[in-house]
Design a protein that fits this description.
alpha/beta; Rossmann fold; six-stranded parallel sheet; 24 strands
Length: 841
């Protein structure tokens, strides 16, 4: 019977893990796996007669509160460090359990149990120390660069031999002396973990995290063997197997061997190698290293993003550092709204853990379906109009496949250099972590926009939406003409692939990228995200980030599937990615990324790269994509760059709203609404369930922020029955970061309407229907309503003029003071916002 129960619990765990395959079932899978662990916990207590409820309950409460507190304070960019820390916790728990069991004199352990215990001491302690070093590096508490000692490999080998010898001796000596050896074994294991982890740098961190995941599982299984618990053995083995598979996937994606990561023999070359990489990788005349962006880079980037129909955004770690993920997502949404085809290309090692980009983009609201892994999206680059690289270097560095003998030689990259145009929004054109110059920057089709990625993406977004780039506010990381060129590329593109990288995560630009992609889609463009398997810092990092930014999972295409599409793509938008789209990976021999599969962004008709600068990525190999004739490089903060691209995209379309299929609002009507809003001093927003259905709250808050910046007093009027539950509107607006003080209840706001310049209704009907107080015998007669009809002007953003749930026609629609904007509320607000940005007040 016990065997049957154990297998049932294990089956529940496997069922939970099975659901991790798809984003929409992952949450249920997580809960299912947690339930399996809970069942295992209860069974262990029951079978061992541990019935002290006080101790058990207190332990559960302390652990739960600690976990909850950590989860609440950790931001998405800190997730890699948190994951490493959790692996360490698993390791320390494992060696403590093993030490306790080995130290007990009341039981006789079998030889297998003793060996398992000693191995648990060593593996648990090395997992703990290695994880703590990794966590410290990822959290910025230690230098992320490899820390190498003289004769480092020798120390590692001696340490490993000592672990084996001491472990063997502990099995042969009397119990009293064995206790001393057990402690010594723990110290040796900890030293081994430190020696291995300290010389692994940021670029190889995903491999380290994955391998520590595997060792934590092994340690747990060994604990299960010493305490003879089948469930712990099975659970640990499952973790070990998944971690091992993940390690293999990461090594394959980076063209690395695990042994070379643990025992590296490569010594970074100096500037001479970097120069040779650039010369051999790119047939065009390179710009001097460190040279400022040419005068027309911003305009060129804007034109490229406007003209492109197929855009791939490549985010990288620079995006995460610049916290440009939201701006990148916003830019993508703007592009989608303009009918563009936008995708994010995710390199498996972009970031600091597997799936780092996915997490950051998800946090920015990017739909998971827009994230495309490297194998799936690389075939699409050659058909992509524009690749927008944001804060990424090594993962799009063509030198990985073109140059031999560098740290990234042979590393698979996102082939952004194959796109027609590339815009790179990187901090500068210096090499990335690898120290290999990025030849992508020197491609004729690449536009490099140097500077803070958050600000650079914002400039691109501004150029797309028509708002002035505001270069004076951000230190002019890229010239005005670069954004004009990128914006024109976006507008002219019908097929767009977005290649996200870790730079997008650093800049928190994923929401801006998602918004840009949405704008392009609404303009009729076919938008996809190209996901490189090692983009980010953990497997699926880009997928998670883009999912959090609201990107549809179906829009995410893996490298192998998408690479064939790049040649037919009008535009690839690379956001924060470099090495994974660097043509040098396939064009130059002897570099760290030579032979590494990349996203073939360089084959697209146009590429926009939104990277912090044009420096090489982690590989240190210059990205030749930047220097392609069809590439627009927009340097600076990826979030700001993507936002500038959105503005550039919308500039020429804001006055032609009726041309956007998703919104039937006529031009003269929306122009009148813009005039009223532009002259208003006080505005009251009335949200309703239609706003929730259209998911318009974020767009609404963006427009409100613009009004408030211009000195307009804006309040939200909350009807108690608006939505589908009490407080529904409050929750939605709180998630959109609306201050609670700006939410006014019906009794408080009704006296204010008579002095309000504009009452703006978004997706509400019955709660503002004057028939409730003017007509008898209707379902809403006598129902208290928000007195929007008392305002000086009324703007109604509803899907149509049909009655609400009550079935009572709304006379507010025919009021002489009312401007009725029918259609999708999200698109209506988006068009109002875009038009308002072009109005001087």
């Amino acid at each position: 019977m016990n065997m049957f129960i154990d297998f049932t619990v294990i089956a529940i765990l496997i069922a939970g893990i099975w659901q991790f395959r798809l984003p929409h079932t992952a949450k249920v899978g997580n809960l299912t796996a947690a339930f399996a662990f809970f069942l295992a916990f209860v069974l262990i207590l029951y079978r061992n007669g541990i019935m002290d409820l006080g101790t058990v309950v207190i332990s559960l409460i302390v652990g739960s509160l600690a976990g909850y507190a950590l989860a609440r304070v950790v931001t998405m960019i800190q997730v890699p460090a948190m994951v490493a820390f959790q692996h360490g916790c698993g390791g320390v728990a494992a060696f403590l359990v093993a030490l306790v069991e080995l130290s007990r004199t009341t039981i006789d352990l079998s030889l297998i149990s003793e060996i398992s215990g000693v191995l648990g001491l060593a593996i648990g302690s090395l997992t703990f120390s290695g994880s703590m070093i990794a966590s410290a590096k990822l959290a910025g508490k230690m230098r992320q660069a490899p820390q190498v000692l003289d004769k480092h490999n020798l120390y590692v080998i001696i340490n490993l031999v000592a672990i084996v010898v001491v472990g063997a001796l502990s099995l042969m000596v009397p119990h009293g002396f064995a206790l001393v050896l057990f402690v010594f074994e723990i110290l040796l294991g900890a030293c081994f973990g430190i020696l291995v982890a300290m010389r692994i740098g940021g670029a190889d961190m995903p491999v380290l995290i994955s391998s520590l995941n595997a060792t934590a599982g092994v340690a747990a299984s060994l604990c299960g063997m010493i305490i003879e618990n089948q469930l712990l053995i099975a659970f640990g083995a499952t973790v070990a197997a998944s971690g091992s598979i993940l390690t293999y996937v990461m090594c394959k994606a980076m063209n690395r061997k695990l042994g070379k990561v643990i025992f590296p023999d490569y010594k970074p070359k100096k500037a001479g190698l970097q120069t040779s990489v650039r010369d051999s990788a790119v047939p065009v005349q390179p710009a001097p290293a460190g040279a400022p962006a040419v005068e027309n880079d911003q305009a060129a980037a804007s034109r490229a993003i406007k003209e492109a129909q197929r855009i791939i955004i490549v985010p990288g770690y620079g995006m995460a550092l610049a916290k440009a993920g939201t701006e990148v997502a916003t830019l993508a949404n703007e592009l989608i709204a303009l009918g563009k085809d936008v995708k994010y290309a995710i390199h498996p090692v972009a970031g600091r853990m597997p799936g780092h980009m996915n997490v950051l983009l998800a946090e920015a609201g990017v739909d998971y379906d827009m994230l495309v892994e490297m194998e799936a999206i690389n075939p699409e680059f050659h058909a992509t109009d524009l690749v927008l690289v944001v804060g990424s270097c090594d993962v799009v560095n063509p030198a990985a496949i073109k140059v031999e003998g560098t740290p990234i030689s042979g590393m698979p990259i996102l082939k952004a250099h194959e796109a027609k145009k590339v815009i790179c929004c990187n901090f500068d054109r210096k090499p990335g972590y690898s120290g290999v110059e990025n030849s992508l920057y020197d491609q004729d089709n690449c536009i490099l926009l140097e500077g803070d990625a958050k600000k650079t993406v914002q400039i691109l977004l501004n150029s797309l939406t028509g708002e002035p780039a505001g270069a004076s506010d951000i230190g002019k990381p890229a010239s005005e003409s670069g954004y004009t060129k990128a914006g024109n590329m976006l507008k002219a593109s019908k097929r767009v692939i977005i290649v996200p990288g870790y730079g997008m995560a650093l800049a928190k630009a994923q929401e801006d990228v998602a918004n840009l992609a949405e704008d392009l889609t609404n303009m009729g463009a076919d938008v996809k995200y190209a996901i490189h398997p090692v983009a980010g810092r953990m497997p699926g990092h880009m997928n998670v980030l883009l999912a959090e930014a609201g990107v549809d999972y179906d829009m995410l295409v893996e490298m192998d599937a998408i690479n064939q599409e790049f040649e037919a793509t009008d535009l690839v938008l690379v956001v924060g990615a470099c090495d994974v789209v660097n043509p040098s990976a396939i064009e130059v021999e002897g570099t760290p990324i030579s032979g590494m599969p990349i996203l073939m962004v360089h084959k697209a008709k146009n590429v926009i790269c939104c990277n912090f600068d044009r420096k090489p990525g982690y590989s240190g190999v210059e990205n030749s994509l930047y220097d392609q004739d069809n590439t627009v490089l927009l340097e600076g903060d990826a979030k700001k760059t993507v936002q500038e691209l959105r503005k550039a995209l919308i500039t020429e379309t804001a006055s032609e709203v009726s041309a956007i299929p998703a919104n039937p609002v006529v031009v003269d009507t929306i122009s009148e609404a813009v005039r009223v809003l532009a002259t208003a001093k006080s505005v009251v927003i009335i949200p309703g369930y239609g706003m929730a259905l259209a998911k318009a709250q974020l767009k609404l808050v963006e427009m409100v922020s613009l009004l408030e910046q211009r000195g307009v007093s804006v309040k939200y009027a909350i009807h108690p029955v608006a939505g589908r539950m009490p407080g529904h509107m409050n929750v939605l607006l709180a998630e959109a970061d609306v201050e609670y003080e700006n939410l006014l209840e019906m009794e408080d706001v009704n006296p204010l309407f008579a002095e309000t310049d504009v009452a703006m209704v978004v997706g509400a009907c019955d709660v503002v229907n004057p028939a409730a107080i003017e007509s008898e015998g209707t379902p809403i007669s006598g129902m208290p309503i928000l007195l929007a009809q008392d305002a000086k002007h009324i703007i109604v953003c509803n899907f149509d003029t049909n009655p609400g749930y009550s079935g009572v026609p709304n006379p507010l629609y025919s009021n002489s003071k009312t401007i009725l904007l029918t259609g999708d509320a999200r698109e209506t607000i988006n068009n109002l916002h875009a038009a308002l940005q072009n109005v001087d007040v």
